[in-house]
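Q: What structure does this chain adopt?
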Amino acid sequence: MTNDRVALYLQDDHDLRQGLDYAWYAEQRGFEAVWQAESRLVRDAIVPMAAYAAVTQRIKVASGVINNWTRNIGLLAATFLTLDDLAPGRIICGIGAWWDPLAANVGIERRHPMLAMRETVEVLRRLLNMERVTFHGEFHNVDGIELDVVHGRREPRDVPLYIGATGFKMMELAGEIADGVVLNYCVPPDYNDLALQALETGAKRAGRSIEDIDRPQLVVCSVDRDRAKALDASRELLTQYLAQQPHIAKASGVPQRVVDEIQKILGWPATYEQIKRAKHLVPDDLILRITASGTPEEALAKVDEYRRRGATCPILFAVGSDVRLLIDTFGPQRAM
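A:
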C-alpha cells in the first residue's frame, strides 16, 4: 500500500535513554509520531513524553494510553498544557478506560466507564480550549476553573484527544466525541471490521463520518532477519499480556483454556522466569495471526493487512532487541 503514515510505540522493555535515541531515530526516518505506553505499574507516560519532545523537533509525541481514573481533571489538563509548552502542536492525548484486575487492585472502581470517559473528554477539551469551566457530573465536579496561564500562551491548545478502545461500546463513544481512536493490539486484522462499524455508528450520532476520525492502531511488531528469534520475542510478550489483560485476550480470540493454563504459571506481577516457563503455550500460528512478526518482508505484509482493514497509521510496538531494524524497515525515509 502507498500510505506512509507510521508511528513508533515504546513501553518498558528498553532502557528509557535508549527510548530517547529511538524517538530521535524514528524522526530521522520519517515516522509521524512516537507513542508512550502507560499500562502496567512500570513506567508512566508523561515523563518519557517530555523527554522525547525535548530531543526531537518535528515528530508528534503521544500518550498511548493514560487512564481517565487516576489524575484529577485539573492536573490532567495542566499536564498536557505543559507538554504543549514544550512541543507546541506536537502533543496527542491518548486516554483509555484502564482494565481490571489492575484498576481494582489499586482501589479504582471502574463503574459506568462510558459516562466517566464522556465527562473526562468534555471537561479536558474545554480546559485545553482555555475556557473557564463549571461542570457537575457523576465523576467530575469543578467550579469556575481554568488553566491559570499568567506567563505564556493564552490561546487554545491544539492537543487532539484520542480514546483507546477495545470494546465496541467504547468504540462507539470514540466515534461520537473523540478526535481519533487508538485501535488495540493483539487482535487479528478482521477484528477491525466490527470495530469500524461501531466507530461509524458513534460518528453518525454526532453528524460525522468515519473519515472524520483518525484511526491509528497499535500493532505488536517484532522484526529480525532470524525469523525464529522475531517470533520468540512476540511469544514472550503475548504470554504476559494474555494472562494479565483479559480484554485483550477476549478480543484476540484466544481459547480460554490457553489463557487459563498461562495464568496458572504466571503470578502478579509476572516474573521473566515465569514468562519463559509459560511461553510454549503460545503457538506460532497465533503469533502470526495477531502480530506483525518475522522477517522484515513478513512484518511489512502483515502491517498492510491492518491498513487494508481501516487503520490509518500503524503504531508499531517495537518488540525485540533490533528496534533500529524495525524503524529502517517501516520508515518512509528508508535507511540508505
